[in-house]
Amino acid sequence: MHTTTPDTDDLIELRRDFHRHPEPGWCEFRTTVRIVEELECLGVDEIHVGPDALDSDERLGVPDGETLARWFERAEAETDRPDLLDRLAGGNTGVVAVLDRGAGPTIGLRVDIDALPITESTDADHWPASEGFRSTTEGYMHACGHDAHATFGIGVLETVLESDFEGTLKVFFQPSEELLGGGKAMAAGSHLEDVDHLLGAHVGLDRSTGTIVAGLDEALALSRFDITFEGESAHAGFAPNAGRNAVQALITAASNMYGIPRHAEGTTRVNVGELRSENAANVIADRATAKAEVRGGTTELMEYMRESVYRCLDSAATMHNCSVDVSVIGEAIRWDCDQQLVDLVADVTKGIDGVNDVIPRDTLGASEDATYLMRNVSRNGGTATYLGIGASNPSGHHTPRFDVDEAVLPIGVSVLSTSILELLA
Amino acid sequence: MHTTTPDTDDLIELRRDFHRHPEPGWCEFRTTVRIVEELECLGVDEIHVGPDALDSDERLGVPDGETLARWFERAEAETDRPDLLDRLAGGNTGVVAVLDRGAGPTIGLRVDIDALPITESTDADHWPASEGFRSTTEGYMHACGHDAHATFGIGVLETVLESDFEGTLKVFFQPSEELLGGGKAMAAGSHLEDVDHLLGAHVGLDRSTGTIVAGLDEALALSRFDITFEGESAHAGFAPNAGRNAVQALITAASNMYGIPRHAEGTTRVNVGELRSENAANVIADRATAKAEVRGGTTELMEYMRESVYRCLDSAATMHNCSVDVSVIGEAIRWDCDQQLVDLVADVTKGIDGVNDVIPRDTLGASEDATYLMRNVSRNGGTATYLGIGASNPSGHHTPRFDVDEAVLPIGVSVLSTSILELLA
Amino acid sequence: MHTTTPDTDDLIELRRDFHRHPEPGWCEFRTTVRIVEELECLGVDEIHVGPDALDSDERLGVPDGETLARWFERAEAETDRPDLLDRLAGGNTGVVAVLDRGAGPTIGLRVDIDALPITESTDADHWPASEGFRSTTEGYMHACGHDAHATFGIGVLETVLESDFEGTLKVFFQPSEELLGGGKAMAAGSHLEDVDHLLGAHVGLDRSTGTIVAGLDEALALSRFDITFEGESAHAGFAPNAGRNAVQALITAASNMYGIPRHAEGTTRVNVGELRSENAANVIADRATAKAEVRGGTTELMEYMRESVYRCLDSAATMHNCSVDVSVIGEAIRWDCDQQLVDLVADVTKGIDGVNDVIPRDTLGASEDATYLMRNVSRNGGTATYLGIGASNPSGHHTPRFDVDEAVLPIGVSVLSTSILELLA
Amino acid sequence: MHTTTPDTDDLIELRRDFHRHPEPGWCEFRTTVRIVEELECLGVDEIHVGPDALDSDERLGVPDGETLARWFERAEAETDRPDLLDRLAGGNTGVVAVLDRGAGPTIGLRVDIDALPITESTDADHWPASEGFRSTTEGYMHACGHDAHATFGIGVLETVLESDFEGTLKVFFQPSEELLGGGKAMAAGSHLEDVDHLLGAHVGLDRSTGTIVAGLDEALALSRFDITFEGESAHAGFAPNAGRNAVQALITAASNMYGIPRHAEGTTRVNVGELRSENAANVIADRATAKAEVRGGTTELMEYMRESVYRCLDSAATMHNCSVDVSVIGEAIRWDCDQQLVDLVADVTKGIDGVNDVIPRDTLGASEDATYLMRNVSRNGGTATYLGIGASNPSGHHTPRFDVDEAVLPIGVSVLSTSILELLA
């Protein structure tokens, strides 16, 4: 099969534009606008944004209003699409783009679009710095390649648009993957329901340009919590009994969380990374907060840990006459790739220009909320896989000097669109 | 006022009989029979035993059926009063004796009758050993002078019986003081209701023979618990998650019990003395038990601690999916002596033969459940005091060589009966 | 005895100047300069500042360099005494002023000069606001009357200076009382060594203007800690064992600190008010900090608690392979007033204008590090007392609307200088 | 190859004799005597017992002297070999039997000989009961087939003795496997040093008679501890601070043991099964003991857990001013089978009478201290495997109704001796 991929320079320009404007989860206002403008240019059949793209009620970890407002204002200043922005207000970012060519299978492609709270390197040998497309938002950075992922999405649409096919292609531009906040909501949206085959993809991951993994999986399932204990303050010297000590509740909960029994079925994890009680030494704490997470080798193991954590928190609050509020601010399940689809991708990928190594299957080595979309497609009788698109990186993911070898852009678009067209054939 | 006290030899014989046959709380079957026989001899007006003497439902720390049966059988062998024993079955020990001489005030005297699980010394210079009245029940001993207390009760009845008075004298022979199990039940019985003035007394307490304290108080209030966590066992290697770990529940509870906030109002105490989980190292514990106690400088402080302990236990059980059962097996409140009655006792005591030092008021330095009776009398508008009757001891209370200087027997009877007759006058 | 107190308007002006420029502990640069300027005006015999006033090595809780620098720069801008400021650099605030009139007793007066991190009220009916002497440093406030105390120090010097006496008066203007950081250092300085009689004083404390307490004591001894656990971070999902978890160390320590056994000798307290670990949920914490305190009904009880806390901290660090650093950032012992001096003060105070109620002795109800000075004087064979100078306040100490009834200024000066002159007589 | 196995009736008689006389670890006095008598009958070349059979210093979990003496006396009564028993005194049980036929490889066979503290069923349909060979020692039972294992050892020796071979066969009759106390000592003895190939075997394990697994492995490594905290008792009401609380030390240790971080490399386990503090509720505990264990998917993971436990125990003791004593009372490493030897066994086993299913490799599903011997042989350049010898059982291992289908006796002897002779060929 022969496909016409977009001009590489255009892909590079687009990726650099995304790179210049990193936005964290649920704040991808400018990113969403830019994607929509590209889609309008291409003339895709349907463009769904915000609440039309995903199930807003299922969003996890949406920032507070003040944070959203700050990013929204920044996007207002940087774009000229108030009509579009209005539909995104309140953290309703994300897009689903549809090419509908009538009867035939429905293929989904899921890419993610958010950035990280990392200050990008200014080193002279950091390519984005030397080439002038370093982050313009200090403290934030595309340090995990989602700028390339969004570019893949546009590039694939352009490629498929120019091909002959019958059926439907839907590209899911998912917000808030880094905090595992968007996958569940995107999976719960209506657009995924009729997808027969789903592809996801990630660049880099310590594989060099030209290497393709047809199926990455075995991610640890994960759940992250924001925890707030509320009690009542009192003077530690003159009325210690009059307080309801949120610090005692928190340390009892945390201590018991670390002690949740290991599970015979496999890997479990638990951690309390952040603790905070801001009372003076002489004040019985009326408030103590924590950020914690649990993981599991399977979704069920993560759920076992999550339920155990809830029990620890609730009981510790009761024990110390406090109340506790727990919010899940991010969650990912484990879902593995379908062998059939892995085989197809491995097969069509071999002949593609620039691809010099095709690994059928490997472990992801991280958590991913694309798994929600994969699960739903599989449950509906479809198949799904999550590709690794090698890209030689000078520095690890989530570091200030991370960068993506731009040679990956046409390769990724080609691998994904070739697979999609094969499925549509 | 002149009173005729009983013959000292008779008092000594009686005390030695009690000493020879020590019985622990709620197992004072033989002791109760012997008391009743004495009362019958004296011809007191009313003798109430068992459920007629106290409120059975309020008994704390009644031993299990097997223990009760063992002591009951021993009493059957040692006495010849099956009719009487039948009324005591199930741990219904204790007596209330009444002298009713018509109109006039009602005076109460409370003495306790139980012994301790201590093996009595066989040393040649231990008086009960050398004189042949050492405990005949190995492992149990009157090591706190309740043999003298019971003798005081009989001696006072005999004395008052021979005196002229109008009114009523009630002597409360209370079971199970050592475990603080009987005071609450005795106080809840109907006989205390019309008592106008109540006396209690304790021998020894590091004061020598001839010293009388007219009012002992400031005891720490106390509550003791039997705690049982029940979970579910599982193999620690192959199914750790399948268990519900009673050990984890217990250690979480105990750790938080020690951390119950100190109280601004005064002294609080908490301790877990006994822990027990008898599972093998490779078994998730399905059962773990503990014996614990709390104390307070006031009844309210003890109650604050008790409520906090309950919360720790319940929450820790919930946290680890276990159930918990807590029984209060002993409890004492704080109740202080009435100054008016202390003054009266101090006054009449001064002239008594053998009394060479009268201390108006001192601290008890231990917990006492006579406080329940004192509180109820006070609440009904009466007055109460708890006397210290000095008795030179060769060794401390609750030790294998404890003994009571028998010279205290006529002194105690005289001090108590003189005070009572003064109140009846 | 008749004394000429300073002009009340001058006292008010001086107090308001202090009030306008509140500075926290060890940052009283401007305050110290103003005091010195007053002393120079009065012509006192000796003025010792900074390291000459106290033992710098014994200072507790000195802020970090950046904080000191910020307050120092502010004082540079507000004063014109670079020579003097140079000697105060690095948190060397405080003054000892000496009037030396040859042979005779040496009397000490200790006053404190620091302010609190409280934002002062702007309410129209808040006197400092309406009268225009509200704090000019947002976020800081003289909310405990130390502005009045410093004024007392100057006023007393002026009064005594104008009187006939033989002997020596030393006024100790102590920094950092609020954080209990300065008393120990002031006591350790050389100027206290020959003091025969020491007076300290506090305004307000819920007593109205005209009430004088000749001896306030029974303060809880107190020790405050800054605690830092350091471990090693690791990825909570992929290398939980590779970390050394500072959060686990901290919660184990804190949990056991709350469980430090109560003490038979009296009141003990422990509290962890602040917890902080700023790691993300997926990071094993490499650092966790806390602010904690212990108290005791006596110095020994506080020391028992402090030693127990150290053991908890060190052991918990070892247990989790972490290190721990503990700094005592504030400490106060308990030291009670000498009856002899209390009697003298009570006696001379009765006749003073404006004084309508003299209470011989009462409890302080707070911790105070003047106790260090009192102890040292007593140990040297002298006597010490700590006076309460009633001042009707519209709002409690340490609140944004706290104020001092300025009528107290001449009363306080009079009470203190009369007592001092009596001692010098 | 043809081998002549011993008469089946003789094997059954021998196994039933062992079954009748179960002895726990390090108390296999009678069992050792009976084995030696059999070996003497057979005329094996060397018989090493007790300290000559293994490294006595490496024995783990040797019972206390009283327990040893009780079993020793029982063996004295049941045997007529005081000379032999003398060499076994103090828990020096176990035998190494050697057939030495000059040059050639040295083959080892390891069997275990101890029984369990389980009361054997008296049910009519429990074969040992109905056939009259039920345990004669109430409370103890061969409930894991070690009676069959010892019989295998004798049967194999008899079989090999009657065959032509050059080389050496050593059979290791190992004591105390159930508590994982003997493997380490047996491996440390001198007889294993020159072994080229080692076989171990276990009957049953839920596989039916006729099934042989040529290599069982992937056991969890395990370490078991006896833990004793010692502090100082004190009265919980009147001197709580005077104690050094062993209960607080234990609960802090246990709580932190459950919280030992999970390990990225694989499975870890920790459990505290037994807790014991026998103090009264009003006594600060001076002593608290526990039985605990850790496991690991590899030996290194077990060691990681063991070191972490030591740190928890030591630190918790220090924290509460207590001392702690920890004894490892049982330990097993993980060691997997050598593929080469597994292949050989699988190969020769296929043709053996009674064998109808040969499984090359499976997981053991339990801990085993034969692994120490396997490791040492492998480290010396040899090979080792651990066979599963199926035997249809009416009830699970370690239950009162466990039994071994005696048809397994000739099959086991045949499988093991055929493999050994193949290695000797």
Automatic annotation (TrEMBL), chains A, B, C, D:
How many and how are cofactors bound here? The Mn(2+) ion enhances activity.
Query: Could you give a GO molecular-function term held by this entry?
Result: dipeptidase activity
Instruction: Give the required cofactors.
Output: Mn(2+)
Summarize where Mn(2+) binds, as residue positions.
Answer: 144, 146, 178, 202, 398
What's the top EC group for this one?
A: hydrolase
Which ranges carry the Peptidase M20 dimerisation domain? 224-313
Asked if the keyword Manganese belongs to this entry, the reply reads yes
Recite the UniProt keywords alphabetically: Carboxypeptidase, Hydrolase, Manganese, Metal-binding, Protease
Q: What is its EC number?
A: 3.4.17.-
> Is this entry keyworded RNA-binding?
no
Please state what the protein is called. Thermostable carboxypeptidase 1
- Which taxonomic lineage does the organism of this UniProt entry have? Archaea, Methanobacteriati, Methanobacteriota, Stenosarchaea group, Halobacteria
